[in-house]
Amino acid sequence: MQVKPKKSLGQNFLIDNNIIEKISTITEITNKEILEVGPGTGNLTSFLLKKKPKKFYAIEKDKNLYSLLVSKFKNKIEIKNLDVLKTDLNKISKKKLIVFGNLPYNISTEIICNWITSYKKEAWFDELILMFQKEVAERIIAEENTSNYGRLSILCKWRLNIKKVFDISPNCFFPRPKIESSVLHFTLKKDYELLKNPKDLEFLTRIFFNQRRKMIKNPMRQLFNNYPQISQKLNLDLNMRPQNLSLNQYFKLVKEYEKLRS
């Protein structure tokens, strides 16, 4: 059964076996429970199965690919024909999962933001090994005071340690995309700032970085009636730009915002 990649679903199948082998060895999965998001034609799936995971779950939105994967792997994997953006991944397993995914470029940021804000205390995953458009990966790992630093960097670094593993050439995919890709390895931080609602961090950083070239006085005024007092309390210079604020300064701002709403 041949399946044609769908442009509407952002499908680019990884076909380079050397790269696939490298991805399958990034972390130890023997006797662990794993989830693969968007397995496509099952190229990475085959390599991951060789590592003998204890349980293998997969989510594939495309019905044709789902049928292909069911016939190819039978009962070796537990595959669901679902949209990952509309699926509660907390319910897949009682164990924390190691997640692999070649995420569709058009929804990759939405997926990672959903996963980070989908739990208050205990994460449903243990590690994430995900492929992004290189430009998106650079935004995720960006440091403060750089042009790539923004909402995505802050959200991801709030709860996760992030390591860039390697870049992947467009030649390794079919169809060949126009851009490079990057593989990132995320692990959970043991200590992170406790916030009442993770969505508040997403909301506040969205307000700040919607006006990333303007001084922070504008978003501060928008969020806080008493913004001069709050900026003084947190030692914030209102002439700074959003990319000049550290992770901790954003976390403190969220706490002040949550105090106002409680």
- Across the major sheet, the strand order is 4-3-2-5-6-9-7
Number of separate helices: 10
Strand % is 15-25%
- CATH topology of the largest domain, by name, is Rossmann fold
Helix content: 25-40%
The unreliable regions are none
Amino-to-carboxy terminus distance: 56 Å
- The beta-strand count equals 9
Rg calc: 20 Å
The CATH top-level class label of the largest domain? Alpha Beta
CATH H-level superfamily title of the largest domain: Vaccinia Virus protein VP39
Mean pLDDT: 93
Q: How would a textbook summarize the main sheet?
A: 7 strands, mixed
**Class by alpha and beta content:** alpha/beta
Any idea what the CATH architecture of the largest domain is?
A: 3-Layer(aba) Sandwich
Overall geometry comes to elongated
How many domains is the backbone divided into? 2
List SSEs in N-to-C order: EHEHEHEEHEHHEEEHHHH
Task: Give a brief rundown of this model.
By secondary structure, the protein is of the alpha/beta class. The protein folds into two domains: about 5-190, 3-Layer(aba) Sandwich (Rossmann fold); about 200-260, rRNA adenine dimethylase, C-terminal domain (Helicase, Ruva Protein, domain 3, Orthogonal Bundle), CATH 1.10.8.100.
